[in-house]
Design goal:
This protein has about 300 residues and is an alpha/beta fold. The chain folds into two domains: about 130 residues, Nitrogenase molybdenum iron protein domain (Rossmann fold), CATH 3.40.50.1980; about 110 residues, Rossmann fold (3-Layer(aba) Sandwich), CATH 3.40.50. It contains twelve helices and 13 strands. The strands form four sheets. A five-stranded parallel sheet has the order 5-4-3-6-7, sandwiched between helices. The radius of gyration is 27 Å and the shape is globular.
Length: about 300
């Protein structure tokens, strides 16, 4: 009997020792996990409360989904909405002030497509996570950007609502376009002009999609690069010319653009660059503007 008791006691002791040598690991919860636009596996252990955005589009979306209170720093190019003037600037896309960035003690830095790998590495060496959310070439990509930013900032409900609104608006406009049987107007967007050459939006660009969504034809739709020859431009003879408002006067008074029919007839329209140059929620303003002009 004593022998049996000793065996049972020994087994219990062995089990206790085994439990001490093999503790059950504590499972750490991850707040946010995602494969970002640079195909990097990103994990944020906790919800970031201090965010730096180096992308105008991301900054704009953060305001849209109600996450602006978490912005502690932005790039010099983040100028919309007007309230961004109150936020600390940390330099441009290619000249980040790393000292100013570090002084803000951000929990995460959100970047777009214009930040170099070298700068990403430099930020991460400072112990700051970097999440790349590239401004997609397709307008539909804006809906995904809204939702990702909503997840990071804990504004999921507002982000989902805005993303759904964005997609429905695109679908409604396309439905209206399908019913339009009139000849499509040819639109030329002046990205660059003058001695350095002429540039416009090619087929593989969000600007091309903006013009097409407005029910028009992009003059550069057959181009694979942003360069356009003068010969090509004059042969295309655009019905409508769009140009950044600050460039209109110079373009309309410069030879040989003065020979374009659209220039002669006053069909050159100034547009806010923030509506069209980057993918942002304001792209719909560009679509609405073009749709009014073409009528």
């Amino acid at each position: 009997m004593r022998k049996l008791f000793f065996i049972v006691l020994l087994a219990a002791f062995a089990s206790l020792l085994s439990g001490c040598h093999k503790p059950t690991p504590k499972q750490e919860e991850t707040f946010f996990e995602w494969v970002d636009s640079y195909n990097r596996h990103i994990e944020l252990a906790k919800a970031p409360q201090r965010i730096v955005s180096i992308s105008p589009a991301i900054t704009e979306v953060m305001y849209l989904v109600g996450a602006q209170s978490k912005l502690v720093g932005i790039s010099d190019f983040c100028t919309y909405p007007a309230q961004t003037k109150e936020i600390t600037k940390i330099g441009g896309m290619h000249n980040i002030n790393f000292e100013a960035l570090l002084a803000l003690h951000p929990d995460v830095v959100l970047i777009g497509s214009m930040i170099s790998q070298k700068d990403v590495d430099a930020i991460e060496k400072m112990g700051i996570p970097v999440v790349c959310i590239v401004e997609e070439k397709s307008l539909e990509g804006m809906a995904e950007m809204m939702q990702v930013i909503g997840n990071i900032t804990q504004c999921e409900e507002k982000a989902a609502s805005e993303a759904d609104k964005w997609m429905r608006e695109i679908e409604d406009i396309r439905d209206e376009n399908a019913k339009d049987t009139t000849t499509k107007k040819k639109v030329y967007y002046v990205v660059g002009f003058g001695e350095a050459g002429d540039f416009t939006a090619p087929k593989d660009s969000h600007i091309n999609e903006i013009i097409e969504l407005a029910g028009c034809t992009n003059v550069g739709k057959s181009l694979s690069s942003w360069n356009i020859s003068r010969e090509f431009l004059f042969q295309a003879e655009p019905d409508i010319i769009l140009i950044r408002k600050e460039d209109k006067d110079a373009f309309c008074s410069q030879y040989p653009y003065t020979l374009l029919t659209a220039v002669k007839e006053g069909r050159v329209y100034p547009i806010e660059s923030g509506w069209i140059d980057i993918i942002s929620p304001r792209n719909m303003k560009a679509v609405e503007m073009i749709r009014k002009i073409k009528q």
